[in-house]
Amino acid sequence: MTDGTGQPASYDIRWAVGAISWSSATDVTRGSCTVPVAGSAIGAKRSCTVLGLASVTGYQFQLIAFRGTLNVNAVFGALSNVASGTTTGTAVPVASVTVTPATVSIPVGQTVQLAAMPKDANNNPLGGRVVTWATSNAAVATVSTGGLVSGVAVGSATLTATSEGQSGTAAVTVTVPPPPPPGGVIFQSDWTSGTGNTSQVVTDGNRWTHWFEFNSGGLLSVVAGGPSGYANALRVQQRGPAYSAVVTKETFVPQSTDFYLRYYMRNDDTSPVGDHIVTADIYNYSWLTYMRKSGGSSGWTFVMLLPGGGYPLLDWGPTVTLARGAWYRFEYFVHFTDATHMQVHPRVYDAAGTLLASDADFQQQDYGSAVWNGRSNWTLASYYAAGFSLDVSGGLANLTTLGFGNNGQALALDTGLYWYFAGVQVRTDTWSGP
User: What secondary structure letter does DSSP report for 32?
Assistant: First the structure.
């Protein structure tokens, strides 16, 4: 396969036991399929082997072609089809079952996902084994066939996972649900579930739908010390392009529905590359990136990435430079002018509540030099006043997702420094304010 420049492409090959999901699948590290696999000739058939697989286990494999250097400046093609197969041999018996997390607390009406891993006598994981789930008290907590626990009533229950006669357990405590958010609020996360880096804490008591850590970087944790009025904050570490992490809220709003987003952010990172850190769909962030930050020793700047316009109407940002180590409040009104077109109206405030930037301050790319539609000085205010809006007909479903974290931007510096989020709120009636 060509890499798009007339040279043979390279390949990233991943595997999983059972059904594969590319984002969480494992790179091949043993055998001639070890990543990265260099292409030989365009159009040539290539075969390779994967070593270290378990016997009598079903696997799926998938690959993606790319050019450049993986985890540095790679440009990717489309994902391949999925190849499936089952290894032969004599099945190793299950000696134990480990359930994670082993203890968990959830409010009534919320859910938490448990995972069960059968292991052999040497504590090696055994994939492809049948696991059944049971609860000791269905009046308190129920569990699905896939290990999804639902809180029914206040109390305690033991969840048991069994495989080939061996069992493991998790202790579940169901607590009183938190009070409902203020009127008009459809999602709120203040990270009040504690501090640390457990799933319960990072997802704020499962308010966030998913928590992903790619390449096991451990980038996300909750720490004390949010802005005024908020005890805690989600801390995100910069580790360069090799690591990324995100929490997401799925389908928080119906398609083509107006909403207001607010969050607080503090940035201490100095990496100058634009990190996509607050987005809609994390895999298709070109539909809407609320925050793409660029750091420096004297401060930091940011832009929004808006869809549909093309250069020079992709990145829009204010000229203000923000201070490292200071909290700011960011608000956005996502307004649908019709079912398939939207406008995004941003506001930026400092910790004292002073408005620093709004529509009139968000400028087009290469302001003053790049010409579009007869002028080179477009702002969001003038763009919308001229009757323009953003065509999102192909990404309506993507816009119903919200993600906060670190995308592992290509060429980002591994500074080890942090940025922080607090007070995330989405509502449908009005601007959130402080």
Answer: T
* Predicted TM-score (pTM) of this structure: 0.63
Please give the Cα distance from 203 to 184 (Å, whole number).
Answer: 22
Instruction: Give the DSSP letter string of 282-348.
Output: TTSGGG-EEEEEEEETTEEEEEEE-SSS-TTSSEEB-SPPBPTT-EEEEEEEEEEEETTEEEEEEEE
CATH number 2.60.40.1180 is the correct assignment for the domain at 185-427? no
166 pairs with which residues across the strands?
163
Cα dihedral 148, 154, 155, 161 in deg (nearest 10): -10
**Cβ-count burial 191-218 (b if 16+ within 10 Å, e if not):** bebebeebebbbbbbbbbbebebbeebe
Mean pLDDT of 272-299: 93
- One-letter identity of residue 123: N
Q: Phi then psi for 202, rounded to 5 degrees?
A: -65, -35
| Lowest mean pLDDT segment, chosen from 58-62, 332-336, 417-421 | 58-62
The closest alpha carbon to 236, from 252, 248, 220, belongs to 220
The per-residue pLDDT for range 83-130, each reduced to its tens digit, is 999 888 777 899 999 999 999 888 887 788 899 999 999 888 887 788
H helix or E strand, kind and range, residue 373: none
Amino acid at 143: V
Instruction: Compare 59 and 267 and report the one with higher pLDDT.
Output: 267
Residue 381: how many other CB atoms lie within 10 Å: 14
CATH code, residues 96-175:
2.60.40.1080
Share of the chain above pLDDT 90, in %: 71
Cβ-Cβ contacts under 8 Å for 238 (sequence gap 6 or more): 269, 271, 275, 406, 412, 413, 414, 415, 416, 417, 418, 419
Please answer whether residues 66 and 75 qualify as being in contact, where contact means their C-beta atoms are separated by less than 8 angstroms. Answer: yes
Exposed, middle or buried: residue 12 (CB in 10 Å: 0-12, 13-18, 19+)? buried
